[in-house]
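Researcher: Please translate sequence to structure tokens.
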Amino acid sequence: MTVGPRRPPRLSALARAITAAIAVAVATGAAACSRQPDARSSPAPSQVSPTGATGTTEEVDGAIDVVNARIPAPAAGSATAQAEMTLAGTTGPDVLEHAASAAARAITFTSNGKPIPRITIPVADGSSLNTGPPFPDRILLTGLRHPLRLGQDVTITLTFAHAGRATLRVPVTVPVP
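Model: Translation complete:
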């Protein structure tokens, strides 16, 4: 008679199914608890909350479409970041007159590397204005108060001459080479 290490008893098929169901329930519950509500799913009428990654188009008071707004993550230690987005007038030309964010001391506009006081948005059917590379117009967040992290949303308020004010939640994304 050979005596060896004792094998643990085998679980029945029912016991294995119950164990698997419990593991799935625990994993699902943990994932649900770690999720935060998505404020972008139902923005207030005056808020714009594009995700950047999904190709969303958001309307600002029916007069401006904001498409694919994002902030590519700046290099470590950088005090400047750049907001990229497409702006399209839907009811007539408009002008982006001002932008502000608590994340930066100032937001400035440039075209071809030179400061400009405002950005004009065209209205011709199918036309739009892109900001960020390789386009000449830029929206720069200068004097960042804290380092920006991937996945973070930065709140930016844009003021248009005709469409009025819009608050955007702009995601910080991986820079595109």
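Researcher: Any highlights?
Model: The chain has one domain: 40-173.
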